[in-house]
Design goal:
By secondary structure, this protein is α/β, with parallel strands linked by helices. It is built from eight helices and six strands.
Length: about 160
């Protein structure tokens, strides 16, 4: 399975304004259909209430999925991260912890929200370019996201 976290609220609005919900859904649908991996959504206990776009993403995927957002303890979330084939989502504490756990991690970042070096400074040096990939939402395309997911998934 693929652990997914897409908090479509707060300052993350800048992210999905640059790379739309439809584009995220299309990229994930292509990647998940190609690999046969199952999407497992994770997130904080407040997400089901304040993140209706996550439900929209799940619907747009059109794939069988599991939604654990708001239903797990922190220890269980870390277990879900560690047991997954990879993590994909917006940069967050979950993406950082996924990389720290040496899980394959793809995090989308939005230029201008943080200094460009932050995407690399927040994870251990040995994860950069090995199990951790950071992509900028500016100029991102569906095909480039799919290719990065495939590349990350194929790494040993």
């Amino acid at each position: 399975y693929v652990a997914l976290s897409w908090p479509f609220y707060g300052s993350y609005a800048f992210y999905w304004q640059e790379f739309s919900l439809d584009s995220i859904a299309e990229a994930l649908r292509v990647f998940l259909s190609d690999t046969g991996l199952r999407p497992v959504f994770i997130g904080a206990h407040w997400e089901p209430e304040i993140n209706p776009m996550m439900n929209e993403l799940q619907t747009k995927l059109g794939l069988d999925h599991i939604d654990y957002a708001g239903q797990t303890s922190m220890v269980q979330v870390f277990g879900l991260l560690k047991g997954s084939e990879l993590f994909a989502g917006y940069q967050s504490g979950l993406s950082i912890m996924s990389a720290v756990l040496h899980n394959k991690t793809l995090a989308l970042w939005c230029r201008g929200q943080f200094h460009d070096n932050m995407r690399w400074a927040c994870v251990p040096p040995d994860t950069r370019g090995t199990n951790y990939t950071a992509l900028d939402t500016t100029g991102l395309t569906v095909s480039s996201l799919v290719n990065e997911l495939r590349s990350l998934h194929s790494k040993s």
